[in-house]
What does this fold into?
Amino acid sequence: MTIGKRLMAKTKEQLYAELAQEVEAILEGETDLIANLANVSSLVWNKLPDVNWAGFYLLKGEQLVLGPFQGKPACVRIPVGRGVCGAAAKTLVPQIVEDVHQFEGHIACDYASNSEAVLPIIVNGELLGVMDLDSPKLARFDKVDQDGLQKVADILQSALA
Ligand code: SME
It folds into this structure.
């Protein structure tokens, strides 16, 4: 081994740059909604540390209905406006929640979850649903995570448009 060369942990930025490339590659040439959401949830789940749930809820009428995900079984229906997912769907603004126990109306699917990131997925100007990540760590998600996840959402939105 070269003197001075050390194995260094990847930065969050590196992880998200790799994730974006992987998402681009896996969506290439495929338009099937369920297949694409399933593969993206798998890539996110396998790439990011300290995540105990990663997946999608899809807008059906006035509700978000569970879509492809990785992690423990989750609640199936969330009214728009309820919980963190419902807030993202209602406001169309990404939600980064440091402590879900302090979030009014938070829906606990897994009591191990302490922080959460939810991004609206908007295809052709319409809300398709949300991408949701949970973590057992408090304040797991920050601005770097939000930007990295937004990049994933952007790639997905383009692929599904
Ligand atoms: N905690 C979410 C519900 C979905 S699960 O985390 C998978 C919420 O409050 O919207």
User: Anything to note?
Assistant: Helices lie at 12-27, 33-47, 83-91, 143-160. DSSP finds four helices and six strands in the chain. The longest helix spans residues 143-160.
